[in-house]
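Design request, tokens follow.
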């Protein structure tokens, strides 16, 4: 699992160097998110617990913290994600504004072989901005 962490961290660093290159994943708007949810694609909210409490989450989302408040990858994150989502199955990632999911999605595709990764444009803030419902439980 240590090598997978290295791949994820190297991938995140490469993202910073890549600048505006076309992403190897799909960025969806709220309509696209709703459609994917209807199709049964799992949603992973990768924010922190205090953020979930502050805004709520899209109904049915799995909560799995990607980075802590200091920006360090949360212990166990990669193992938890890869044990819950097969790389051949689609997955949706959502965060607060879309920045964390952009950082996460690229190495999932380019280095870990995930085939269908979707990120939510504008994250939960865009969802709330459109007046869409959330679970607060």
């Amino acid at each position: 699992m240590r090598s997978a962490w290295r791949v994820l961290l190297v991938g995140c660093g490469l993202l910073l160097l890549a600048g505006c290159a076309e992403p190897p994943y799909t960025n969806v708007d709220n309509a696209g998110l709703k459609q994917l949810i209807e199709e049964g694609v799992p949603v992973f909210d990768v924010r922190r617990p205090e953020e979930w409490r502050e805004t709520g989450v899209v109904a049915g989302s799995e909560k799995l913290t990607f980075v802590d408040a200091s920006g360090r990858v949360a212990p166990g994150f990669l193992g938890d994600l890869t044990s819950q989502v097969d790389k051949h199955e689609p997955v949706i990632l959502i965060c607060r504004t879309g920045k964390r999911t952009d950082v996460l999605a690229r190495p999932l595709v380019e280095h870990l072989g995930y085939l269908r990764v979707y990120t939510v444009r504008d994250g939960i803030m865009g969802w709330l901005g459109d007046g869409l419902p959330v679970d607060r439980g």
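Comment from the thread starter after seeing the answer: thanks! The radius of gyration is 14 Å.
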